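User: Structure please.
Assistant: Input sequence and predicted structure:
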Amino acid sequence: MTSREETGTGRVARQRAGGRVRRSLQGLPAQFWLLIGGTVVFNTAIAVGLPYETIFLTEKLGVSLGAVGTVWAVAAFAGLPMQLGGGLLADWRGRRLVLAISAATILGFYAVMAAATALWQVAVAAIAEALFGWPLYLIACNAMIADLVPLRRRPVAYSVWRAAINVGVVVGPLIGALLLATGLSYRGLFAVAAGGCGIFVIVALVVVGETRPTGGRSVTSEGDEDGGVAVLVRGLGTVFSTRRFLAFSLAALLVLFVLGQFLWILPVYLTRDLGMAPTSWGALLALSGVIVAVCGPPAMRLTRRVDQYWLMAAAGALIAVGVGGAAFVVPGWPVVVLVALFALGEALFWPLSSTIVSEMAPPELRGTYMGAWTLVDCAGRGVGPVVGGRLTDRFGGRRSFAAALMVGLVGAGLFPLLRQRGEPRPDQPPTEPAIAQGVPGPVGYEEVPGGGAVDERRGDDGEEAGG
């Protein structure tokens, strides 16, 4: 084959792959894209103010860095129980209400930041935000996407959602920096962030429709003698009696323990111990966000025939190497490589984990399962910096990150062990006996509110699943 023929063949293959990705995106329902548009606005608004919260408190209010760190830590752990409550609320009263509560709470947090004169005011707002803000947003969106999108397309859909979040994470700080350069104060910046969150409140209440399944038995069906609260508690018991969910959560916790150190411990180690400039870390964060946003959806589409648990193992290994590998590198291009590997791991980890949890959840308990998964997520990423920071202080950065590498690789190695024997590949529908045994997979038609009946047996581009 000549080089020209090879070039032509490669171009055709790339065009076909690109066409498949476009078809998989075009097949997602309209309401999903409304949620994605709102997500970009919402996360851009948050990221306008987020990088400057600690700077404002220390420079303008004169609060010590230790006191600020304590407020953030207390708020994060105080909000953990409500993540279970948020999932129950999403199944009881609907996803849209939870979404609106989340956006309104974050709006309130930035409104307080814009007017705060004392740390206690920020502390109260931060605890409220941890209880009713970002975690509830994750719960509502995870459940809503599972309601709207057939199982076979969920990895791509969750990846698009995560890409939208990362677009906001990349664009928001740039807007914030530009506004500060024009002379806007930090308080003005927080007011802008609150205004953007207000737009999303309107989107959640007016534009986005309710997606909570109405067919079949609801978690609060009429006629339950014990009342709705008792039914919800039984639903929570169902989640934590599901051994497969508990095993998956344990493996994920090990990876999340490592992932949580990326934002908080790794930059300190790189700048303090390896001598990297702080501005370089900002550029690396932007690179990470771009990789997740650009590579996530195509990666999900191109790996659709690979077993999801093996992909989770690959994602966990990439995250472990991306963070723990810092123990063995020097400043410069090796750090860039590590950040790129970490970002690729994130691009796989988040959509796959949400998809797997959504497969385990009965439609009437999706919110509850997603609330439990959000609890696992936040707990793992919260414990990581606390333990990692103490290990770094006591044993040094290299030993601490070497330990993180081992922990992450152990977690990654557990995922393939969770795959049930005889479970169908992701590109094949399960057999009737498999369905009877509770093996998750595409099982026919699913009613999607506002979107008509969706045939889950069809592939991303309209082809039959087995074809």
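The chain has 20 helices and two strands.
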